[in-house]
Amino acid sequence: FCLVVNAAGRVFAVTIDDSQLVSDLHDVIKERKMYQFPADDLQLFLAKRDDGKWLSLDEAAAVALDEEGRLQGFEPMNPGRWIKNPKHFGEDFQAKQEEVHVLVVLP
């Protein structure tokens, strides 16, 4: 699942093949949400806690931007890397209900 930060817990699902790039995920999210700005303007972050576990729906809904409109404490996803890159989801990723995997920050 993905969650738009500062959007009242708006969680949504997207489907993307693990052989695609993070930049492709930008495109899928833009299309799914019908945003009227370039997909490259989206900022995507891994929704992982410090212990490496994925955020729960409640934890993700509580995430907020700082005073300067930035997301602190989460790793940005590199648009040039594959989805299955170990720094992102890895080869053996299995999505589970009640988990958020990507935090989306709008321009």
From TrEMBL:
Keyword Protein transport: no
Leader sequence segment: none
Cellular location(s): Host cell; Secreted
InterPro entries in the record: Crinkler_N (IPR045379)
All copies of domain Crinkler effector protein N-terminal, residue ranges: 1-105
GO cellular component labels: extracellular region; host cell
Keywords (A to Z) from UniProt: Secreted
Keyword Secreted set for record: yes
Name of a matching Pfam family: Crinkler
Main location: host cell
Protein name: Crinkler effector protein N-terminal domain-containing protein
UniProt lineage: Eukaryota, Sar, Stramenopiles, Oomycota, Peronosporomycetes
